[in-house]
């Protein structure tokens, strides 16, 4: 069924809401052509809402959102530092302080980049819980197709994306890219092998419109009402 860009935004919004309300952690991979305006969609999420305000749906207030628009030839350390910088600033502001200090480490030299990213997010979540109470974290990665192929022996940004089954409770990722068949073959193969069980949603282009893959082509997006995310609150910073 042909749907308008607004209809596509609603559909992607519903998928994000279901990720955050039906799962304790997870990764949603949205795939669509450039006409879907995925970057603007990610910007809206960072602003604290999804384009479904007419239906009364908003992201949980306690959610910490970090977005990263991937550009070609970006070094993985820039992504790692951006995640820490953004979390430091947002947690500090919410605590009535300046951005919280942290020790810069060379994540790109870690023997296991996926586990290093998990360790970093767990630490920042623990700090956020201390200052803000329950604080799930959503990392938005926009433009996976721009990830550059690394030189031998070096990591790329994709290496730092944890497998869905390894994510701690309260940690979520939303990723966007062009359709998988349009990605470089090495990147498509890496993400497929590295992220077993990832929740993929692909939207096919039909002229200037998008086709949403539904079992029932006349059905509206499936949206589950928000429920409280349960992330244990640690005792100290």
Summarize the structure.
The protein has helices at residues 5-22, 38-46, 76-94, 113-132, 185-194; strands at 2-3, 26-31, 64-69, 137-142, 171-177, 199-202, 204-206, 209-211. The chain has 237 residues and is an alpha/beta fold. The strands form two sheets. It has a five-stranded parallel β-sheet, sandwiched between helices. The chain has a three-stranded antiparallel β-sheet with strand order 1-8-7.
What does this protein look like?
- Helix 3 runs parallel beside helix 4.
- The chain has a single domain, classed as Rossmann fold (3-Layer(aba) Sandwich), CATH 3.40.50.
- The longest helix is centred in the middle third of the chain and has 20 residues.
- The chain has a 5-stranded parallel β-sheet with strand order 3-4-5-2-6, with helices on both faces.
- The C terminus is likely disordered.
- It has 237 residues and is of the alpha/beta class.
- 32% of the residues lie in helices and 16% in strands.
- It starts with a strand and ends in a 26-residue tail after the last strand.
- The protein is built from 5 helices and 8 strands; from the N terminus they run E-H-E-H-E-H-H-E-E-H-E-E-E.
Q: What key phrases describe this protein's structure?
A:
single chain, 237 residues, alpha/beta, Rossmann fold, five-stranded parallel β-sheet, three-stranded antiparallel β-sheet, 5 helices, 8 strands, disordered C terminus
**Gap between N and C termini, in Å?**
51 Å
Mean pLDDT: 76
Structural class: alpha/beta
Total count of domains: 1
Q: Note the run of SSEs as H and E.
A: EHEHEHHEEHEEE
Which strand order spans the largest sheet, edge to edge or round the barrel? 3-4-5-2-6
Compute the number of helices.
5
Tell me the number of strands: 8
CATH classification class: Alpha Beta
User: What's the alpha carbon Rg, rounded to whole Å?
Assistant: 18 Å
CATH architecture classification name: 3-Layer(aba) Sandwich
Characterize the largest beta sheet: strand count, sense, and whether it forms a barrel. 5 strands, parallel
**Runs with pLDDT <50, length 5+?**
207-237
Global geometry? globular
Helix content: 25-40%
At CATH level 3, the topology is: Rossmann fold
Portion of residues in beta strands equals 15-25%
């Amino acid at each position: 069924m042909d749907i308008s860009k607004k209809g596509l935004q609603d559909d992607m919004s519903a998928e994000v809401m279901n990720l955050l309300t039906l799962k304790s952690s997870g990764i949603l991979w949205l795939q669509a052509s450039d006409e879907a305006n995925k970057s603007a969609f990610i910007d809206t999420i960072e602003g604290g809402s999804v384009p479904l305000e007419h239906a009364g749906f908003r992201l949980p207030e306690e959610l910490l959102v970090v977005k990263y628009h991937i550009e070609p030839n970006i070094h993985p350390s820039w992504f790692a530092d951006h995640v820490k910088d953004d979390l430091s600033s947002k947690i500090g502001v919410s605590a009535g302080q300046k951005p919280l200090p942290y020790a810069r480490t060379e994540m790109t030299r870690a023997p296991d980049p996926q586990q290093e990213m998990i360790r970093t997010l767990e630490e920042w979540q623990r700090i956020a819980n201390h200052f803000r109470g329950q604080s799930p974290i959503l990392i938005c990665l926009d433009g996976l197709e721009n990830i550059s192929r690394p030189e031998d022996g070096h990591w790329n940004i994709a290496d730092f994306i944890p497998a869905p089954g390894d994510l701690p409770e309260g940690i979520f990722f939303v990723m966007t890219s062009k359709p998988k068949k349009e990605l470089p073959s090495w990147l498509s193969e890496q993400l497929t092998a590295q992220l077993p069980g990832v929740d993929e949603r692909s939207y096919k282009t039909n002229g200037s419109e998008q086709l949403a893959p539904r079992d029932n082509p006349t059905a509206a997006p499936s949206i589950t009402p928000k429920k409280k995310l349960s992330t244990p609150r640690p005792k100290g910073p």
